[in-house]
Every structure is written in C-alpha cells, then in structure tokens.
Amino acid sequence: MKGIKIIMYDDNDPFRDSVTMLLRDTPDFSLLAAYAHCNDVIKNVLDNQPDVVIMDIDMPGLNGIEGVRLIRQNYPSVQILILTAFGDEDKVFAAIKAGAGGYILKNTAPENLLNAISEVYNGGAPLSPSIARKILSQFQGLPPERKKDDFRLSHREKEVLNLLVDGLSYKMIAGRLNITYDTVRAHIKKIYEKLHVASMTEAVAKAINKRLFS
Fold first, then answer.
1. How would residue 40 be classed by pLDDT, with cut points 50, 70 and 90?
2. Pick the CATH number of 4-128 from 3.20.20.70, 3.40.50.150, 1.10.760.10, 3.40.50.2300
3. What is the DSSP string of 149-171?
4. Helix, strand, or coil here: 22?
5. Which residues contact 157 (CB under 8 A, 6 or more apart)?
6. Are 80 and 99 in contact (CB under 8 A)?
7. Residue 130 pLDDT more than 80?
C-alpha cells in the first residue's frame, strides 16, 4: 500500500465522512480506517499499523487526549495529529503533553489539512495559527532564564530556530532560506540534539526562554 497510512477518530459522522472522502481521493494518502470512538485504540493501531493517527478530542467513552497518551505509550513511532473544534488552552496543552505531534482546528482548509498530515508524518509539528499564538503567548509569559550559552548552534541552525519560533512550517522555512525540505529536517534534528529536546514545542519554548536568537 502506497502513501502515508492513516487511521482517524471522530464521532461527528458527516465530518468524518468528508475527511474520509478527501483522503481517499488524494494520491499519497491511504486511509486505512475511520472510527467514531477510540475505546479500542490499542487494538486499532495494532491491527492497522498506521503512520499517522488523526484524533478528535471530545468523543464518547475514552477521550482523544487519553487516546493520544495510550498511543504514545504503546506505539511511540506513530505520529498523532489532533483535529478538533476545540481551541481552548487547557485542551491544547493537555494534548501536547500527552504526546500529540500537531494540533489543527476543524475549520482548516482541506489543502492545509493534507499539508499538516504530511508535516507531522515527516517529524514536524503543524499548528493552526490561533493555536500557535496560544502556545507562544504561554511561553512568552515565562520569566526568561539567564542566557548561559548558545548550545553551540550554528548560524544556520539559529536561523532555522528563529523561523520555527515565528511559526513557519518546514516547507516555508525551506523557501525562506532557499534550502531543501530535507536540509531543514536535518538542521532541526541537530537543533533537537543540541537543545536536548524531543519536539518542536520544546525547542520553541527553550528558544524563547533562553533568548536563543541570532
């Protein structure tokens, strides 16, 4: 089976059906299954072996945040994209803390949803603009730590990190710096290693908190 392998959880039947049609009509995406609840999430993931799980938050039985936590604990290599109508801060941060790799609102345009799935599959952390602002506002409210060093980031790595802080996607960073998408991924991998972080959210938080700007 070719393309990014996906399973989806959403209890809104019309919305689930519309995303199902979008994914099944789009090359390079393979929707394996769509569920109205995530009560059997461990078995579902085991049976389907997806690359990406699209997860709603408010569903009957087990909620999406608990579903994310179970997937992350049992299948750490599976990428998880939250797709929900809820943009309130408590749900955003709970989902990220549980292990979600991205957080997109349901009013996102279809093309942007497809881009978000590709981005989370490739190790990015796609966020709807309003969600990115909430996260940045939260981190900007923290008292900055005294700058001790620059973690030996190269000039180019600092450029990439600054653009991450500005909310740019991998694709946008590649265009801005006139480098390839794979080069951006390589720089971000090195940034994670040098900052001792495991996600884009952590990298952005540390960059703001320690004022790691070129």
1. very high
2. 3.40.50.2300
3. --TT--HHHHHHHHHHHTT--HH
4. helix
5. 187, 190, 191, 194
6. yes
7. no
What stretch of H or E contains 193?
helix 181-195
Distances (CA, A) of 41 to 64, 86, 89, 126: 10, 21, 25, 23
**% the chain with pLDDT above 90:** 36
Name which of 42, 92, 87 is nearest 69 in CA terms.
Answer: 42
Do residues 44 and 35 lie in contact, with contact meaning Cβ atoms separated by under 8 Å?
yes
Domain ranges of the chain: 4-128, 142-209
Q: Does residue 109 register a pLDDT over 80? A: yes
What is the per-residue pLDDT for 204? 74
**pLDDT level of residue 165 (50, 70, 90 thresholds):** confident
Topology annotation, domain 142-209? Arc Repressor Mutant, subunit A (1.10.10)
54, β-bridge pairs = 8, 81
Copy the structure tokens of residue 158: 């600092």
* Amino acid code (one letter) for 61: G
